[in-house]
TrEMBL record:
Residue stretches making up the Fe-containing alcohol dehydrogenase-like C-terminal domain: 195-282
Cofactor entry: Fe cation
Organism expressing this protein natively: uncultured Segetibacter sp
EC identifiers of the protein: 1.1.1.1
Residues of the Alcohol dehydrogenase iron-type/glycerol dehydrogenase GldA domain: 12-184
UniProt keyword annotations, A-Z: NAD, Oxidoreductase
A GO molecular-function descriptor: metal ion binding
PANTHER family reported for this sequence: ALCOHOL DEHYDROGENASE, ALCOHOL DEHYDROGENASE 4
One of the Pfam families matching this protein, by short name: Fe-ADH
Iron-sulfur keyword on record: no
UniProt-recorded name of the protein: Alcohol dehydrogenase
Similarity-based family: Belongs to the iron-containing alcohol dehydrogenase family.
Length: 282
């Protein structure tokens, strides 16, 4: 695999992967008649040069952009409600999640809420909420800026209660992004600590998926390759990042999120409640 071109994968959704892939966003929006998207990100990403360049490029194409970035590092229900209110008030017609897991989870949950106005936690997967996801969701696009959670290819969003901080899983195949623009250039300036932390999350996804007891040879093969790519690239991505290392980490992150359809394990079963109690990244 070369790292100087853009590839297209169609598994589990359409993925445009490679340096510069994010620059295809504007033409895709025009082709899809999405002239008024809501862009969901976090406060940090909203200040970065690459994000400002994305917004500038879209404005040059006469695409009306509304940015929502008022989210918590562990997203809560009120984040989703606020974002949905902005979607409604500004007459948006699509949603783009740009960032790490928190921003993309909020974007996905807003996509759910637009046409499902019961209490958000009615759709909690742990109480069978998927059956209530009956309407279509707005056109949903994801652009990852870290190589860790793999949320860009997921079908669920993890959102916490504002008061109890208990996390809920909102799940439905309808919540899968229509297209992912996975551009390793957006991860080049990640600081070493964030690179290491998100990289270990990606490694854990792949490892736990491989070890989960359910028989799923497709996910097991993906998880093995994901672990191999991370073993080749994580140290370099942290200490001496180049395009190859960043590309391998980004694709391995995607692979981990695909693989954990099989299941996860004790690390995540402990990490999620601890992050709720201590308000830390899982």
């Amino acid at each position: 695999m070369g790292f100087d071109k853009i590839y297209q994968y169609n598994f589990p959704t359409t993925i445009r992967f490679g340096p510069g892939a994010s620059k295809e966003l504007g033409d895709y929006l025009l082709k899809s008649a999405l002239s008024r998207p809501l862009v969901v990100t976090d406060k940090t990403v909203a200040q970065l040069d690459f994000f400002k360049e994305i917004i500038t490029d879209l404005n040059k194409k006469n695409i009306s952009i509304e940015v929502f970035h008022e989210i918590h590092k562990n997203p809560v229900k009120s984040d989703v409600y606020k974002g949905t209110d902005i979607y409604d008030a500004t007459l948006r017609n699509g949603i783009i999640g740009i960032g790490g897991g928190a921003a993309i989870d909020v974007a996905r949950a807003i996509a759910l809420r637009v046409n499902h106005r019961e209490d958000l936690f009615k759709y909690d997967d742990l109480v069978g909420g998927e059956v209530y996801v009956t309407s279509d969701v707005p056109h949903f696009i994801t652009i990852p800026t870290t190589a860790g959670t793999g949320s860009e290819v997921g079908r669920s969003a993890i959102i916490a209660d504002d008061e109890t901080h208990q996390k809920k899983i909102l799940f439905s195949p309808k919540l899968l992004a229509k297209i992912v623009f996975a551009d390793p250039l957006l991860t080049m300036e990640l600081p070493p600590f964030i690179t290491a932390a998100t990289g270990m999350d990606a490694l854990t996804h792949n490892m736990e998926a491989f070890l989960a007891r359910m028989h799923h040879p497709l996910c097991e093969g993906i998880a093995l390759e994901g672990m191999s790519l991370i073993s080749e690239s994580l140290e370099k991505a942290v200490n001496h990042p180049d395009l190859e290392a960043r590309s391998k980490m980004l694709i391995a992150s995607l692979m981990g999120a695909i693989a954990f359809q099989k299941g996860l394990g004790v690390v995540h079963s402990l990490a999620h409640p601890l992050s709720s109690l201590l308000d830390t990244h899982h």
